[in-house]
Amino acid sequence: MGTPFIIDFHSHILPGIDDGSQNLDMTREMLLQSGEAGVDLMVATPHFYGHRDTLEAFLERRGKARRAVGTILTPDMPGVRLGAEVAFYSGLEELDGIEQLCIQGTNVLLLEMPFAPWTEYEWNVLTTLTLDRNLQIVLAHFERYYEFQKDPNLPQRLKELFVYLQINAGTLLHWNKRGRWMDWLARGDAHLLGSDTHNLTNRAPNLGQARDVVKRKLGSAVLERIDQTGNKLLEL
Ligand SMILES: [Fe+2]
Questions:
Q1: FRET partner for 218 with CA separation of 20 to 30 A, picked from 57, 63, 89, 200?
Q2: Ligand 1 center to 142 CA (angstroms)
Q3: Tell me, what CATH number does 16's domain have?
């Protein structure tokens, strides 16, 4: 097996589709910066809000934005794989065609959970999505919900459902925020990294910097495990 691809698992690089990239010029710059930082593949994950959007309309907008990106791709940019950041809502677990929101060619769904304590209701939806809808769930920027959760068995419950956790690069760049998440990554309780880039200023592509921190503090074996996990999920 060769060197694994470096994947940015969470990004808002598609132009004009959500609160991420505003136009093709911004997208071009995001891709160039990511390529320069060594990223091989960006998963484009525009927000999907099923309580106020239809799947059909979303897929059409996403397809149009992806085709536009196709016209500016150059060899020094990462590849782009379509996905979505699917916001939790009541009824998500019954959405027809939900598999079309998975990362292209996989059953991997990037899910944004409520920023509130999760109840048995949320756990039931997670269970249905995993066991009945046969989806591999990755929770987007897990660290952002963590402060709301009180359940001491949280890591165990997530493991039992084979849910993977994605951490935002920006969190690892804050010396006063990253401690816990470095520990989770070191233990293998958190699995994937994403820039969650939205723009070129306060939410710029920063995966490379976060990877440097992981390598420096935890060693290259942890980084390699993160890459292997991402490559396995995307069947690269
Ligand atoms: Fe996001």
A1: 200
A2: 11
A3: 3.20.20.140
